[in-house]
Amino acid sequence: MGSDRSLQPINIFHNVMNQNRSLLVIYTGGTIGMVQDSESGSLLPFNFENLYQYIPILKNFNYTIDFYVFDTLIDSSNVSPAFWIQLAEVIESRYESYDGFVVLHGTDTMSFSAAMLSFMLENLNKPIVFTGSQLPLGVIRTDGRDNFINAIEIAASYEDDMPMVPEVCVYFDNKLFRGNRTTKFNSENFKAFLSVNYPLLAEVGVKIKYNSPYIQKPNFKKLTVYKNIDCNVALLKLYPGISEHLVHAVLQTMELKALVLETFGSGNAPTDSWFIEAIEQAINKGIIVYVVTQCNGGSVEIGKYETSRDLGRIGVISGYDITTEAAITKMMFLLGNVESKESIYQLLQTSMRGEMTI
């Protein structure tokens, strides 16, 4: 989880003349924090004490900006529940000391991490803005500078002493998304994330235009941080020609407690008897089957077409318009923190942190 030393942020810039807002920037790893070594040409993590060499304009902000750098930086492909817990603990231990947080994170699993943090942090009343980049910060054409600068400004934005965006967000390419509504859809374009089923929280141009009706409001309750995560969840994506052996192999995974089933369209699946029987047997054994759509946009509507009626009959649970990333993390969160299976069923069909539209 990191040594005591790692819990001391590096204070890069402290503006004693005007301390309007204080922010903590958490660097976990990822492309945004890399620079190219002048000798070898390879990408290396840069020292945040030299940050103003790359983004000198940050000095113009009237904020106190502190930095916390993970002892062991990770590629986002290596994100794990232990990482999520560590990140939540960093925020929890400094929650009262800062007005907002910016998390620098690799893009590949940013949507998973943003979704999980939204579930782990109940009664969040301050901004947590995830951002990253497609090109390293040390590259001339990097998108990291704008992403970082705008994420800082959004995390520090308050009006009448109230945070503009008191929730977990993802900022990328001039757009602010609700974190648990995002999906990474492009590995090369600066426009890397989508949130098809939920409007933007803000858009950055000459001004930052906040979409206030769609932003969660603070409730002023005490932050509660949950740290139990149960990973006994499987993901099964349906495709034409999927074999009976594969489906059975997934459902017979040792200690499996839940299955996120990525169906076609609005919840459609094969009507072959072997498939329906396999899912029904799993449900009868106590495995929770949560149905989401493979489509980037739209919602699951069990029973809308004949090819989804059998799923409804055997007792699958509809995820409505939840993303696969949010569905998996929500399931892990609920299995780790809710004992009653009936309560889990109910919460899977409830929007807990704005992650789905009922």
Q: What can be said about this structure in brief?
A:
The protein is of the alpha/beta class and 358 residues long.
What's the layout of helices and strands?
Layout: E1 10-13, E2 21-27, E3 34-36, E4 43-45, H1 51-54, E5 63-69, H2 81-94, E6 100-104, H3 110-120, E7 121-122, E8 128-131, H4 144-155, E9 158-159, E10 162-163, E11 168-172, E12 175-178, E13 183-184, E14 193-194, E15 202-204, E16 208-210, E17 224-225, E18 233-237, H5 244-251, E19 258-263, H6 273-284, E20 288-293, H7 306-314, E21 317-318, H8 324-337, H9 341-348
Parallel strand pairs: 2-5, 2-6, 6-8, 8-11, 18-19, 19-20, 20-21
Antiparallel strand pairs: 1-5, 3-4, 7-17, 9-10, 11-12, 12-15, 13-14, 15-16
Helix pairs in contact: 3-8, 5-6
Mean pLDDT: 90
Please trace the helix and strand order, writing H or E for each element: EEEEHEHEHEEHEEEEEEEEEEHEHEHEHH
- CA distance, first residue to last residue: 37 Å
Number of strands: 21
- Integer count of domains: 2
- Looking at the overall shape, the CATH architecture of the largest domain is 3-Layer(aba) Sandwich
Largest beta-sheet details: 9 strands, mixed
DSSP summary: helix tally: 9
Outline the low-pLDDT stretches: 1-18
